[in-house]
Amino acid sequence: MTKQEILQVEGLRKRFKDIDAVNNISFSVAEGDVFAFLGPNGAGKTTTIRILMDIIHADEGTISWNLKGQGNGFPLASRLGYLPEERGLYLDLPVINSLIYLAGIRGMQKPKAKAAAMHWLEKLELADRANEKLQALSKGNQQKIQFIASILHEPEFVILDEPFSGFDPINQEKFIEFIKAINCNGTTVLLSAHQMALVERVANKVFLINDGCELYNGSLPDIYNRFGDRMVLDLAFEDHAPVNRISEIEEVEHVEAVDEKQIKVTFMPGTKMEFILKKLSGFQGITEFSTQKYTLHDIFLNLVKNHRS
Amino acid sequence: MNYWIQLKTVMLWEYHRFFKIKNELIGIVIMLVFFVIGFFGSSYAFKASQDKSPIFVANDVDGELIELLSENFDVTISDYQEQETFIAELPERKSGLLLTQEGATFEVHSWRNSGRIKELQRYLDEYRSRQAMQEIDLPRESLQYVLKPANVNEVYYFTAGSRERRIMAIFFSGMMVMAVFISFAYQFTAITGEKQLRITEQIVSAIRPQVWMDGKILGITLTGFSSILIYTIISILGGIIYFQITGSPLSSVLAYLHVPSILLFLSFTVVGVLLWNSVLAAIASIITDPNNSVKSSLMILPSLFVGASFLLLLNPDNHVAVFLSWFPLFSASAMPMRFVVTDVAWWEILGSFILLALAFYYIRKLAARIFHVSILINGNEPTWKDVFRMLKESK
């Protein structure tokens, strides 16, 4: 069954002075999606998100929202959640007060907001610090409070701009689970990030952007089908890795030196293992040999490289 | 969620964030401590000034003058040697006066010029008058008759502007300046501080900039007025206690409470403070760092405008006065001032008030637009030119 599209973006453009921050991009998000907006720093992710949140206006293009029971206009505050890239909360006020206020301006009644805030604070192991001033909390914990503020009012659609930045690996893992949990409870998620390894574990759709331009827009399985059928080998040599000689092999797409003895070799799509082994047999001193799947990170780097060239 | 509910949420948030009754009471206690210290300090200083000042008078000065000076000075008659010593020690002691006489000319020696010299001058003038009267044989009664002022019956056709009403108008203008100054500090914390803490993006993703701006203006205005209210109540209680202690009738206080005037003054003051808070909010919206911004100096603007309206008391009926009482940035204090010192038609009061309210309505809209276009600027502060350009582009 096709899911209903709740956000449609067509031909979006935004120019700052002589730079195209967003250059004619189009995409759509369906109900229940975890839509990942991926790109390097300065790619145009945050600008696009700010346009979606109606904080700045696009020069061209249309944005249509289609949340249940509402027209095509910008959704009510109560139905949207937003974690901005630029984090900030009231440092000199108790955590619980800020959370209740932020839920309040998104239409949640005070008693309900307080209960929801305590529920999330417990979940994030911060319940005992509810009445402390925010400035007393560590940066990581302040990040958690910011995350709670964006989803406390149980929005139908939440936009998380760089939700993993500032977290240690343990908390990043936790946040993947939180995002999955709110998505399971019916919240559609649009997130922007550049931690591809984390994103590919939670997203079902990806949009790759570079210099404001679309590089890819589609489902996660599809991006692997289209760009991921490459063999990647990790090779270690006794002495210096022969980078130049390996690059000269016609079927090699890219060679990345990990250090002076180790390299990562990406082969052209469709290159057979049998052929690869035959070619490598001509090299002396290989000490380690392993294959790996072409990751989202690799696909992204490859697409960005091709786009820039 | 409609405008009014969000407005109420933001307004109450700002109000509870800044108005702390505990802080107000601490402020009042500190003020009372300074008042008590000031009161007793000035009483002591005043008492000290009542004491007779010492004066050394040369022994050849006329006895009649010495007698006259004794009324207000502690006179010591000194010989030439003592006079020399007095002058020699003057740089050390730095106080006291020495009076010598050479015919009709007096010489006064003092470390520096002071109020005592002027006082001494009055006695010397009096002495000289007496001497002159004696010389021309003029009786004192005749001199008083000559100097008697003309008899004038004063008939005024505008009598409403009583002293009490003038004081009320000045009180409300002062209240407006105080409320604006109190609000101003909060305005910076609420707007510029929020930008510095990068909270703004979170907030305006949930509410429209206009709601945010209106909530802030109202919440901070309410904070300013709450502080003023507390100080007013304490002033009234203090006044009542003062009148009780000094035995003056309580009607002395009640004479100030002319309800129609109070309602008029209060209406202009409330809308005036709202207007100024809107202007200040617009300025605060483009300031990224209040400590280093030249735009922070604009905070003196309200006192200049209110101060200018005091000029009306001198000539309330000329064209400048009429203009000031209509022009919104002045009218909140200027119209009440004119009202108490001259005859102002009801339609002038109403027209001026409508203009003031309209100015508030549009300036708060402008403040929200300025905020909206400068919302994400955290680096270099935009110039006024940048702001006008951004406003133009945002259309």
Concise synopsis of the structure shown:
The complex is a heterodimer of chains A (309) and B (395). With 309 residues, chain A is an alpha/beta fold.
Count of separate DSSP helical elements of chain A: 10
Question: Helical residue percent of chain A?
Answer: 25-40%
> Which structural class fits the helix and strand makeup of chain A?
alpha/beta
Mean pLDDT of chain B: 83
What proportion of the residues of chain B form beta strands (DSSP E)?
A: 5-15%
Q: If you compute it from the alpha carbons, what radius of gyration of chain A comes out, rounded to the nearest whole angstrom?
A: 23 Å
Helix/sheet category of chain B:
mainly alpha
Overall spatial form of chain A: globular
Report strand % of chain A: 25-35%
Number of domains of chain B: 2
CATH architecture of the largest domain in chain A: 3-Layer(aba) Sandwich
**CATH fold-level assignment of the largest domain in chain A:** Rossmann fold
End-to-end separation of chain A: 40 Å
Low-confidence stretches of chain A: none
Strand count of chain B: 4
Q: Which H/E pattern describes the elements of chain B? A: HHEHEHEEHHHHHHHHHHHH
Shape of chain B: elongated
Total DSSP helices of chain B: 16
Explain the overall architecture.
Chain B: This is ABC-2 type transport system permease protein. Chain B: It is found in: Membrane. Chain B: The chain crosses the membrane at residues 25-46, 167-188, 217-243, 255-276, 296-314, 321-339, 345-363. The complex is a heterodimer of chains A (309) and B (395). With 309 residues, chain A is α/β, with parallel strands linked by helices. Chain A folds into 2 domains: 5-226, Rossmann fold (3-Layer(aba) Sandwich); 229-292, ACT domain (Alpha-Beta Plaits). Chain A contains 10 helices and 13 strands. Chain A has helices at residues 45-52, 95-104, 110-123, 139-151, 169-184, 196-202, 220-227, 243-247, 273-280, 296-308; strands spanning 5-16, 19-30, 34-38, 60-65, 80-83, 157-161, 188-193, 205-210, 213-219, 232-237, 252-257, 262-267, 286-292. Chain A has a 6-stranded mixed beta sheet with strand order 5-6-7-3-8-9, with helices on both faces. Chain A has a 4-stranded antiparallel beta sheet with strand order 11-12-10-13. Chain A starts with a strand and ends with a helix. Chain B is mainly alpha-helical and 395 residues long. Chain B has 2 domains: 3-29 and 162-394, no CATH class; 52-147, D-Maltodextrin-Binding Protein, domain 2 (3-Layer(aba) Sandwich), CATH 3.40.190. Chain B has helices at 3-18, 21-50, 63-69, 80-93, 115-136, 140-147, 163-196, 200-204, 209-246, 251-254, 259-286, 301-309, 319-326, 328-341, 346-374, 384-394, and strands at 53-58, 73-78, 97-102, 105-109. Chain B has a 4-stranded mixed beta sheet with strand order 2-1-3-4. In chain B, helix 3 (63-69) links the parallel strand 1 (53-58) and strand 2. The mean pLDDT of chain B is 83. At the A-B interface, helix 2 and helix 4 of A face helix 1 and helix 8 of B.
